[in-house]
Amino acid sequence: MPPTPLAVCVGESMAVLLPDRAGPLESVENFRLAVGGAESNVAGALAALGVPSAWISRVGDDGFGRRLLGELTARGVDVSAVAVDPHRPTGVYLKEVGGTTGDRHDLGPGRSRLHYHRRGSAAAALSPALLDDPAAARLLAGARLLHLSGITAALSDDCLALLRTLLAERRSDRLVSFDLNWRPALWRDRDLSVLPPLLDAADLLLLGADEAEAAFGTGDPHALRRLFPSPATVVVKDEARLVTAIGRDGTTVAEPALTVEVVEATGAGDAFAAGYLAGTVRGLDQRRRLRLGHLSAACALTTHGDQAELPPAPVVGALLDASPEAWAATRVSADGIVSPVLPGALTSTYAAPDDPPPLPPTASRTTASRTTASASPTDRSAPVVPGGGAPDPRPAATPALGAP
Q1: Spatial separation of the C-alpha atoms in residues 227 and 221, rounded to whole Å
Q2: Per-residue model confidence (pLDDT) at position 260
């Protein structure tokens, strides 16, 4: 019997077509099918971090919808409340990757662009009627964490009404987190004034500084704290530099990002959100929550897959407890993690923990996935590989997927 989900994420996910080569779309011969979505990415990452999670949405009665359900199930996410729409399709987007073709339409190395085909999708029909569905009502009633995003608000009036209803149902035993996930193309024909009240109704608000600057005219953490006074905590992510968490009473904790050799730049925002939320569920203090978010994002940045594994629990624990100097000296790459707090052989067999406690938290364990890590006893700078260097049982890696 699978554990009851502690975290429920609500929002659209889509089928993704990934090009077989870099360059403008017209030069691509073949595409490979994958899936992507902000809320489902967070649900999958939470499950990998040991937090039982569910994803609630709608998909079309088509192959893309079945692919979404299959992949999320394989990641350990409860999809029992995902409705299958017989009339509307599953949304699709294509990823364009820049290269060095010299074509004037080439985005250039290290750059990418997402092309969406989601109008009239099954997920756009999400509405407050969802709350009358027994499967969804069961999951929402048992959730101690509800995760939403601004993407859903932009999909349709019905989706906006659903978010308003969910945010109006305040419960002392449930934390509601809201990630801005600014998508300007979605808001082109929508009324942006509906967005600030949604953000201010959450308990925990996650904002990218660049996104907030584009949407609200400021990326300054303290200005955003004044703009959204109601959430217990406002977390502002300043790209790869710093993340700042500010409490309602003005208490501020800022934590610098890790130094990372980036393989794929997209997808880290969802990973950070999952790490931070997992730390919240675990009852970690604010600095360790931020660090777990950073570590989760760093591991996502060093892989082509959208669901990166964290290193074994002893490594995670050592990094969360590191001094500011040791944290600043830590380096993360596809080859592993090198840090002053990992001085030599760090070998351990890591077993998945018991279910994490409901909010409010009563434990402080940080968990990842079952794995084994080892480093040579004679090489005191040997990197610890995320996931322990064990073979990845998942399908071949795909380019990391940003939130659609």
Answers
A1: 10
A2: 94
Which helix (H) or strand (E) segment holds residue 348: the answer is: strand 348-350
Number of residues written out for the chain: 404
Of 62, 179, 203, 270, which one is the catalytic site residue?
270
Q: For residue 383, which amino acid is it?
A: P
Q: Which two three-digit tokens encode residue 123? A: 């997920």
Global pTM value: 0.84
Active-site annotation holds for 270: yes
Spatial separation of the C-alpha atoms in residues 395 and 71, rounded to whole Å: 10
pLDDT at 162: 98
Question: Which residues of the chain fall short of a pLDDT of 50?
Answer: 345-382, 384-404
Query: CA–CA separation, 261 vs 392, rounded Å?
Result: 20
- Can you tell me the distance from the alpha carbon of 350 to that of 161, in angstroms, rounded to the nearest whole number? 44
Nearest CA to 123 out of 207, 38, 208 is that of 38
Residue with tokens 């971090």: 49
- What would the two tokens of residue 16 be? 């993704």
Type of residue found at 225: R
* DSSP summary character for residue 50: T
Rounded Cα distance, 57 and 40, in Å: 9
Rounded to 10°, the helix 38-48/268-282 angle is: 50
Q: Are strands 83-85 and 7-10 parallel, antiparallel or unpaired?
A: unpaired
Which pLDDT score, from 0 to 100, does residue 1 have?
63
Whether 97 and 19 have beta carbons less than 8 Å apart is answered as: yes
Q: How far apart are CA 53 and CA 4, in angstroms?
A: 8
State the Cα–Cα distance between residues 236 and 214, nearest whole angstrom: 14
**pLDDT value of residue 351:** 30
The pLDDT, as a whole number, for residue 170 is: 85
**DSSP string for residues in 181-244:** ---TTTTTTS-GGGHHHHHHTSSEEEEEHHHHHHHHS---HHHHHHHS-SSSEEEEEETTTEEE
